[in-house]
Amino acid sequence: MMLPPLPPLPPLPPVRDLLPHSGAMVLLDRVVSADDDNLCAEVRIHAASMLATGDGVGAWVGIEYMAQAIAAHAGWKALRRDEAVKVGFLLGSRKYQAAVPYFVPGSVLRVHVHRVLQGENGLGAFDCRIDAADAGQGAPALATATVTVFQPDNVNQFLEDGKAG
Asked: Of 80, 14, 20, 60, whose CA–CA distance to 41 is shortest?
């Protein structure tokens, strides 16, 4: 017995529609793929990239690429539920390791995030990896980390509660 095919997923929206960022603070260029637990985004490195120096973008910026990919994943899921994209918070990272000192101009990076934990209270953890887009299967990652995040139900109430304490 053959099952009917699943309906196709809607096309991926522009990355700016998935993030609570605006203007130059949107560091990702596009979302390549997304599902319930994963997202892959691209970043093109060029001389005018935010935080670029003569050598490129310092690999330490990779943690922000990862955080924005996680935010894009949350935004993608929110839009699929017909909800608004909400602000979240980067709580920290474990074992951020970069194999390169800079992401060089002219390169295209693929930022992969995989949800490994999501609590009802808004806490989450993601395994993250940055690869060169033109790297072959099995090529070593340019950067890796486990990133922890928090997305409160009501960010304004959360911030107000934080002021009181």
From this structure: 14
* Residue 18, phi-psi category: left (phi > 0), alpha (psi -120 to 50), beta (remainder): alpha
How many Cα atoms within 13 Å fall on the side-chain side of residue 56?
Answer: 18
Task: From residue 44, give the alpha-carbon distance in Å to each of 57, 77, 111, 134, 143.
Answer: 11, 24, 11, 12, 16
CB contact at 8 A, 58 and 102: yes
Rounded CA gap, 85 and 60, in Å?
A: 26
Residue with tokens 């099995």, as numbered in its chain: 138
- Closest by alpha carbon to 152, among 161, 139, 144, 143? 161
CA 140 → CA 63, 79, 134, distances in Å?
17, 33, 12
Decide: residue 47, CB within 10 A, 0-12 exposed, 13-18 middle, 19+ buried.
Answer: exposed
The predicted-structure confidence for 133-162, as pLDDT tens digits, reads as follows 998 888 999 999 999 999 988 877 777 777
Q: 3-state SS of the chain: helix, strand, coil percent to 5?
A: 25, 35, 40
Q: What is the pTM of this model?
A: 0.89
